[in-house]
Design a protein that fits this description.
The protein has 265 residues and is of the alpha/beta class. It has eight helices and nine strands. The strands form two sheets. It has a seven-stranded mixed sheet, sandwiched between helices. A two-stranded antiparallel sheet has the order 4-5.
Length: 265
């Protein structure tokens, strides 16, 4: 399946945007024909065993996410196309990743044998893992397709969700991953496992965005296929190239007839 910028503009970007908006709006704007199944609420007790194993620095991302909101994203359903949609958010700052470039990877506990992953990302995902499965079971029965997306840290947890839901998930369908501004998540063995499991995995990357460059190789390696966009950057503002709205600009340059409005991060 070739990368489709129109699909990214019409479905993926609005879904990623809604994952942020749902923190303050219980009925965020969703892609056409999608209805909200429910918000993905974090449950700290689900992540407690992992957190007990972690170094304090590895807890920073989860603490920052929880400080912003206990809602980490949403699940939606397209009854016409029998498609489940999981959209995961990031945080308002990117500095935690830039400061954590030397993170030592650990085994991915949700899927033994899948390889090593960033512990901070794994802890964030563990907070929402059970509720994602619950929402998919409750609202997406009979799905013939499952999309998983996210921006920034949400892109990192989307990859973890893809491997988990593709192996242990309640829906009998392989997920498709379409992420925006994602960092590296795991070691080469994790990337190899994901690429063998997930048939579609696109990483949209804006030129000059620093987040897709951390954590550093060769310890960490990207999975999936990179799709570069030219959304713009500001020399004196490192975060500008990472903004979700900047990614929309880049996608629209690939498909200029498409227009989507919304408030991004």
């Amino acid at each position: 399946m070739p990368f489709n910028p129109n699909f990214a503009i019409e479905v993926i970007w609005p879904a990623a945007n809604a994952a942020y908006a749902i923190m303050s709006d219980p009925q965020p704007a969703l892609p056409a024909n999608y209805t909200l199944v429910g918000p993905i609420e974090a449950v700290t007790r689900e992540a407690a065993p992992l957190m007990l194993q972690a170094h304090p620095n590895q807890l920073r991302l989860a603490h920052e996410m929880l400080a912003e909101s206990p809602i980490f994203g949403l699940v939606a359903w397209n009854a016409v196309e029998k498609t489940a949609l999981v959209a995961l958010r990031g945080t308002k700052t990117i500095w935690e990743w830039i400061d954590d470039v030397d993170a030592v990877p650990v085994p991915y506990q949700a899927v033994p044998g899948a390889g090593l992953v960033h512990m901070g990302f794994q802890i964030v995902y563990q907070h929402m893992r059970a509720n994602i499965a619950r929402l998919l079971t409750a609202g997406c029965a009979g799905a013939q397709r499952m999309l998983i997306t996210g921006h920034s840290l949400g892109a990192a947890t989307a990859l973890l969700a893809g491997v988990d839901l593709g192996t242990n998930g309640p829906l009998e369908v392989r997920p498709e991953l379409h992420t925006l501004a994602g960092p590296r998540v795991g070691t080469p063995d994790f990337a190899l496992f994901l690429n063998g499991l997930v048939p579609v995995c696109y990483r949209v990357v804006n030129v000059m965005d620093v987040v897709p460059h951390v954590p550093l190789p060769p310890l960490y390696e990207h999975a999936g296929q990179e799709e570069m966009v030219q959304g713009g950057f500001k020399p004196l503002d490192v975060t500008y190239a990472h903004h979700l709205t900047t990614y929309l600009i880049g996608l629209q340059k690939l498909a200029p007839a498409q227009h989507v409005t919304g408030v991004g991060v």
